[in-house]
Amino acid sequence: MKLRLRSLIVLAISACIAMPPANAWNSIGHMAVAYAAYQQMSPELRTRALALLQKNPDYNKWASYVPASASPDDRNLYIFMMAATWPDEIKAQGSGYQLDGDTPPHTPEATNNTGYTDKYMHKYWHFVNTPFSTDGTPLPAIPTPDAQTQIAAFRQVLADPNASDELKSYDLVWIMHLVGDVHQPLHCATRITAGARRGDGGGNSVKLTNDPGDLHGYWDNLLGVGDTKNYSVAVAAAKQLPAADSAAAADANEADWVKESFQLAQSAVYIAPIGPALGPYTADAAYAANAHTVAQQRVALAGARLANLLQSLK
């Protein structure tokens, strides 16, 4: 009996480890952000960014996904798009990167910016756990570092003419990804309730009957489903994006981007039929239509803001 119990525990632990991490937008969403940004970048800026991406350890893998029949321009576009998925790719089991949790450790590696020699996943860099409560439950502090602090740090390096290209390459893929992350409402909010005093993990704990079974994953998948190889799905989704509002796109303050997503989480995500508990709930047709519209607007805006941010790239 003890042996059987031990075996079951091992299997349970293994299953938890094998579960894919929640992402802000999936690969399709992140590549759509990059596509939107690329369309608004000058030829000189594209050339500079692509030269930096060649220093990424996965560059040859991305290039291998592009068919030989693709034009040089398309090849560059697809590689730029795929690069935006890299910070999620290193969270995969067997990636060679060290597993860390969603809570920042109180150790130097939490804020280290040393480039590709850094073998931590930095899962806590992907979101801003801004809490809110619908039932008066006390709110916890926001852990840092987070996506907002890291965008600020990385953009300083990209604009620094004295920073090395190796470091800029690392910071470039991260900032391409994190700008997308903070435009996903559930990566800037966590709902605190009596039943979830530590938060619902940006909707990860809110169960849905819709695929993939939780609120966070549902929002991640709104532009389509696929991985880095499926860049063609992302191209099709990106071509359906609305034009970003020019005044909003001109806002270069990452704190504003986070605040927008936090407010949208309350006004567009945690709304009927999503109730006050952890579910399960069913997202109906009206909810789905509104969510898809909001997701398209946020991805388009993220792309425009990313293009503007990269104008300072030295």
List the helices and strands and how they pair.
Elements: H1 2-18, H2 27-39, H3 43-53, H4 59-65, H5 72-83, H6 86-89, E1 131-133, H7 147-158, H8 165-181, E2 190-192, H9 215-220, H10 231-238, H11 246-249, H12 254-269, H13 285-309
Parallel strand pairs: 1-2
Q: Return the string of H and E elements.
A: HHHHHHEHHEHHHHH
- Uncertain spans: 1-22
Main sheet record: 2 strands, parallel
Rounded Rg: 19 Å
CATH architecture: Orthogonal Bundle
Q: Looking at this structure, what is the CATH superfamily?
A: P1 Nuclease
- CATH top level assignment: Mainly Alpha
Global geometry: globular
Helix count? 13
Structural class: mainly alpha
Q: CATH topology, which one?
A: P1 Nuclease
Strand content: under 5%
Average pLDDT works out at 92
- The rounded distance between the terminal residues' Cα atoms is 64 Å
List the strand order in the largest sheet.
1-2
Total DSSP E strands: 2
In helices, the fraction of residues equals: 40-55%
Number of domains: 1
